[in-house]
UniProtKB/TrEMBL annotation:
SMART domains: ARM (SM00185). This is Armadillo repeat containing 3. It holds the Pfam family EDR1_CTR1_ARMC3_pept. Residues 609-723 form the EDR1/CTR1/ARMC3-like peptidase-like domain. Residues 293-526 form the U-box domain. Keywords: Repeat. PROSITE patterns: ARM_REPEAT. InterPro entries: ARM-like (IPR011989), ARM-type_fold (IPR016024), ARM_PUB (IPR058678), Armadillo (IPR000225), Armadillo-Ser/Thr_Kinase (IPR052441), EDR1/CTR1/ARMC3-like_pept-like (IPR055164). It comes from Oncorhynchus kisutch (Coho salmon). Gene3D superfamilies: Leucine-rich Repeat Variant (1.25.10.10). ARM repeats lie at residues 150-192, 357-389.
Length: 737
């Protein structure tokens, strides 16, 4: 027998290491394993990191510090499917940490993540890749990068994924992206509306809510709203709103509806399908406060067009809104007042609110503790009283004027502006205006006139002008003199066109009070108005009127600037001519007996121009002077002597014994004003000054009628008493020789 030989096994290769199961409780060790070339090690390391990161943000920060993020950002593109999946699971959880997000952005990980959203990828990869993007997309620069890398299209496709987590993460990312306008448009162009609507039927409320939030944003775009209609969005929305199980989400659904109702076509469609009645039910049926509030906001959106307001009026919306005014809740009251303001643009609605005693209900809200309620209440009253005296009187009967004056001290600019607007509307009626003034409105306007808010300034200046429009109002301007004129005059410097225009209007009204006009001149109003009127871009009709009113209060300055005093410009004691040569002041105590004798001709208007009256005036000033002998009439020497004698450049006109054109014309104007003769004073070139009077001379065209009055110049120096018809060669010669 042969010897039995035992078969021996082949020795192991020298290059192969025996399998070694590794267990580690140290995160640092596991992070090091992420750099292993072995797939099995990578799978287990990623899985361990995922579990560790899930335990809290502190663990995520620890992993970040150990350097786990960078290798994970590479492993999500690993060729092994299992490694890739586990790496995404780890990175998806870690991306919730703000520092991790910053590092991923720095590592430019977004393109790699987006590439893994393709349909052939594992659903778990989809879940955690979208989780990463949901975390990253809250950052503006990441939003831009996701959009630039065309990440929106695969995200929209994943809205139809069978996995709810993928849906949730995808719609959350889209909701973040559409905060920017380009992404909103892209959602529509990429046909994203149908899958968003389909998510409303999800069994998970969080997915429904995110879908609604996204729709709230994208439906602010007009074209998207058209797509929403075409895709039966209203049917889906009304189906959702009619389901009481979704009542917690009705607020967002109503916001979507509110956006869509801005379009006429949408309103007509929802009206035809019964949606408007459903919306009104949300208003009238006691339910959650937020739901009622958003339903009212939807009504406000609907009421932005005149046709919609008419349709809502036919539904008796005013009654429902008045009932809501009595309910508790600042947000509801604010929204209701805003809806009242919108509906009050419809004339019939103004009357309806008054008949339903809605104005009194709104007035009561002026005393609310909530600033937004006070602002909205004043806004509603502003709309209700605009061009409606009956409603203004209803506010007065509800004692609203006192509350509105108090609201001028409010800390909320909008509340002040709307209150001032209501007071402006009410001030059109004298009884109401007097009541408003009696509550200290003029003093209360001092603070708004110094506001930094443009709208407040516009309304405050309008109110000031409305309240100071008559003698009663001007008696209260003393409060402005106490400090309010400074900010009012400074508003002339405003670069805001409407503020500047209304400031000019207010100044023109206040200038009817002479002391106030003088004070405004001292504050520089004249210089500012001249500057405004010299600019083609800044000038307006009120700036011209304001300048004229201020000049009317200071005729000396008016004459210096305009070279003209009209017949309505009546000179008084203290008027002077600030001419280029000297200043001549009219001191009536210094006038000669000529003024006394001329005053006797008061009842005979033509007597002042008739030669018997003019010649004595001429004689006082040195008598007649022939044209070719004017160089011998040494009036300059005489005035120099008077200046030396008086030690002043201001010369009482009654002391002048040699006067030329402008001395005589000035004296004539002064005397004419004293006896009631209509007379103007006009300065031309070369010290030529003349008076113009309107006289009815000649034969009337029809028996029993007075001749047409015509302008005549009065010769006071060459042939005293001669009348020269204006615009004739003789008159032009007198003006220039």
């Amino acid at each position: 027998m042969g010897k039995k030989v035992k078969k021996e096994s082949e020795p192991p290769s020298k290059d192969v290491f025996d399998p070694l199961p590794i267990e580690s409780k140290k995160a640092a060790t596991v992070v090091l394993m992420l750099n292993s070339p072995e797939e099995e090690v990578l799978v287990k390391a990623c899985e361990a990191i995922h579990k560790f990161a899930e335990k809290g943000d502190e663990n995520r920060s620890s992993l970040l510090g150990l350097g786990a993020v960078e290798p994970l950002s590479h492993l999500i593109s690993h060729e092994d499917k299992l490694v890739r999946r586990n790496a995404f699971m780890a990175l998806g959880v870690m991306a919730a940490n703000s520092d991790v997000k910053r590092l991923l952005k720095k590592l430019d990980a977004i393109p790699s993540i987006i590439r893994k959203l393709s349909p052939e990828e594992d659903v778990v990869v989809h879940e955690f890749a979208t989780l990463c993007l949901a975390s990253l997309s809250v950052d503006f620069s990441c939003k831009v990068q996701i959009s630039d890398q065309e990440g929106l299209e695969p995200l929209i496709q994943l809205l139809s994924s069978p996995d709810p987590d993928v849906k949730k993460n995808s719609v959350e990312t889209i909701c973040n992206l559409v905060q920017d306008l380009p992404s909103r448009v892209a959602v529509r162009e990429l046909n994203g509306i149908p899958p968003l609507l389909e998510l409303l039927r999800s069994e998970f409320p969080v997915i429904q809510q995110l879908s609604l939030r996204t729709l709230v944003i994208v439906t602010t775009d007009t074209d998207t709203r058209a797509t929403f209609r075409e895709e039966q969005g209203f049917d889906r929305l009304l189906e959702f709103l009619c389901n009481k199980e979704f009542s917690d989400l009705h607020v967002e659904a109503l916001q979507v509806l509110s956006n869509c109702l801005e379009d006429r076509d949408s309103l007509q469609l929802i009206h035809e399908t019964g949606g408007l009645q459903r919306l009104l039910q949300f208003i009238t049926t006691p339910t959650l406060l937020d739901i009622q509030t958003n339903a009212v906001k939807a009504i406000s959106r609907v009421a932005q067009s005149s046709e919609n307001r008419k349709l809502l009026h036919e539904q008796d919306i005013e009654r429902s809104l008045v009932e809501l005014l009595s309910l508790e809740g600042d947000s509801l009251r604010t929204a209701t007042c805003q809806a009242v303001a919108a509906m009050s643009l419809h004339l019939a609605s103004k009357d309806a609110f008054r008949d339903l005693d809605g104005i009194r209900a709104v007035v009561q809200l002026l005393g609310s503790e909530g600033g937004e309620v006070r602002e909205a209440a004043a806004q509603a009253l502003s709309s209700l009283t605009s061009s409606n005296q009956l409603n203004s009187y209803a506010v007065y009967e509800a004692e609203g004027d006192e509350g509105l004056v108090q609201q001028l001290h409010d800390v909320i600019p909008g509340a002040v502006a709307h209150a001032a607007a209501v007071l402006t509307n009410m001030a059109e009626q004298e009884v109401l205006r007097c009541s408003i003034l009696s509550h200290g409105a003029m003093a209360a306007l001092l603070e708004p006139l110094q506001s930094a808010d443009t709208h407040t300034l516009v309304r405050a200046t309008q109110a000031l002008a409305a309240l100071a429009c008559d003698a009663e109002g001007r008696t209260w301007i003393k409060y402005l003199n106490a400090g309010g004129l400074v900010p009012l005059v400074q508003l002339l410097r405003s670069n805001h066109k409407e503020v500047r225009r209304n400031a000019c209007w207010a100044i023109s009204v206040c200038a009817n009070d002479e002391p106030t006009a003088v004070e405004m001149c001292k504050l520089g109003a004249l210089d500012l108005l001249q500057e405004i009127n010299s600019s083609a871009n800044r000038r307006n009709k009120f700036s011209e009127i304001a300048l004229q009113r201020l000049l009317d209060s200071n005729l000396s300055l008016k004459y210096s600037l305009t070279n003209t005093l009209a017949p309505t410009d009546i000179t008084v004691d203290g008027f002077y001519d600030p001419g280029q040569v000297e200043l001549c002041v009219t001191s009536f105590s210094a006038l000669t007996s000529l003024s006394l004798s001329l005053s006797l001709s008061k009842a005979v208007p033509l007597s002042l121009v008739v030669a018997a009256a003019v010649q004595p005036l001429s004689a006082v000033m040195g008598g007649a002077v022939e044209v070719d002998r004017q160089h011998d009439f040494l009036w300059e020497l005489h005035l120099s002597e008077l200046r030396y004698e008086l030690q002043s450049n201001i010369i009482p006109i009654g002391q002048i014994r040699k006067g030329t054109y402008y001395h005589r014309a000035l004296l004539y104007k002064v005397l004419a004003d004293r006896i009631g003769v209509s007379c103007s004073l006009v300065r031309g070139e070369y010290n030529r000054v003349w008076n113009e009077v309107l006289l009815s001379v000649g034969t009337p065209h029809y028996p029993g009628c007075q001749p047409q009055p015509r302008a005549h110049l009065v010769d006071l120096i060459h042939q005293p008493g001669r009348l020269l018809r204006a615009n004739t060669p003789q008159a032009k010669q007198y003006q220039t020789i």
